[in-house]
Write a structure and sequence with these properties.
Elements (H helix, E strand, L loop, with lengths): L10 E8 L2 E9 L4 E17 L5 E14 L3
Antiparallel strand pairs: 1-2, 2-3, 3-4
Length: 72
């Protein structure tokens, strides 16, 4: 997953049914360039999250909430 805010976009969400179950992400920009990302990784799967601040996180199955900053 790579959430990428552009222009006036301040939030987005997406989900997809995979063979392992539903994968989803939603994110929202906050004041001061902060971003909150909520993700669901299906059971028995893993995901890579590439944050707008350039950091990368490997996530196991389950629900995750990540707070990060947006480089502008």
């Amino acid at each position: 997953f790579r959430p990428t805010p552009v222009g006036d976009l301040t939030w987005a969400s997406y989900s997809k049914e995979t063979p392992a179950g539903k994968a989803s992400i939603k994110w929202k920009l906050r004041r001061g360039g902060r971003m909150r990302i909520c993700m669901r990784v299906p059971r028995g799967s893993s995901a890579t999250l590439i944050c707008p601040d350039g950091s990368t996180r490997e996530l196991r199955s389950g629900w995750h909430m990540v707070r990060t900053r947006v480089n502008k």
